[in-house]
Design brief:
This protein has helices at residues 11-16, 19-28, 38-53. By secondary structure, the protein is mainly alpha-helical. The longest helix is centred in the C-terminal third of the chain and has 16 residues, at 38-53.
């Protein structure tokens, strides 16, 4: 998981990750991951990451 604090994640990076890795990232960002499909998880991570970076 290569996350750069200033650049955040790209959709390409997230789509290449396993659902397990996406769930770990989501949990670290405070995103509820119960019964969420991979594409929805990618979208939520991108949104939360953008909020976090301002």
């Amino acid at each position: 998981m290569a996350e750069n604090a200033t650049q955040g994640f790209t959709i390409d990076q997230l789509q290449k990750m396993s659902i397990f890795d996406l769930r770990k990232i989501a949990k670290s960002l405070g995103i509820d991951v119960k019964l969420v499909k991979k594409q929805e998880l990618v979208r939520r991570i991108l949104e939360k990451d953008a909020e976090r970076r301002g």
